[in-house]
Amino acid sequence: MSGQAFTQLSITERPQEPALSAQAYEKIDREIAKYPSDQKQSAVMAALTIAQREVGWLSPEVQAAVATYLDMPAIAVHEIASFYTMYNLKPPGRFKLTICTNLPCGLRNGNQSARYLQAKLGIGFNDTTADGLFTLKEGECMGACGDAPVMIVNDHRMCSWMSNDRIDALIDELRAAASDSPEPKQMGKKGER
Question: Fewer CB within 10 Å: N-end or C-end of the chain?
Answer without folding.
Answer: N
